[in-house]
Amino acid sequence: MAKRKGGRTYDIQLTIAPVRNQEGEIMGFVGSQRDITQSKELERLKDQFILEVSHELRTPVTNMGLYAELMERGKPEKNLSTGRC
């Protein structure tokens, strides 16, 4: 995360690499950052979409199973009117 001048935060990808001298000693570091806010938001939306679609796909199956079970038992009103339970 990084902050803009106005104080708003945003997502970044940060890459840092050491800078070495001829003897191989680290003399400093160089880095770059890239704003990945849009990529993160698209990933979040994709995950939300998948979650909602999977829920919608499961819900009718559950309802059909309950409906089938009720049909196997018969209508409760019918059983009550005949005196059977």
Low-confidence stretches: none
* H and E order: EEEEHH
Mean pLDDT rating: 83
- Return Rg in Å: 30 Å
Number of helices: 2
Q: How far from one another are the termini? A: 64 Å
Q: What kind of oligomer do you see?
A: single chain
Shape: elongated
Task: Please tell me about this protein's structure.
The longest helix is centred in the middle third of the chain and has 37 residues. The protein contains 2 helices and 4 strands; from the N terminus they run ββββαα. Helices cover 52% and strands 27% of the residues. A hairpin with a 5-residue loop joins strand 1 and strand 2. With 85 residues, the protein is an alpha+beta fold. The strands form 2 sheets. A two-stranded antiparallel sheet has the order 1-2. A two-stranded antiparallel sheet has the order 3-4. The radius of gyration is 30 Å and the shape is elongated.
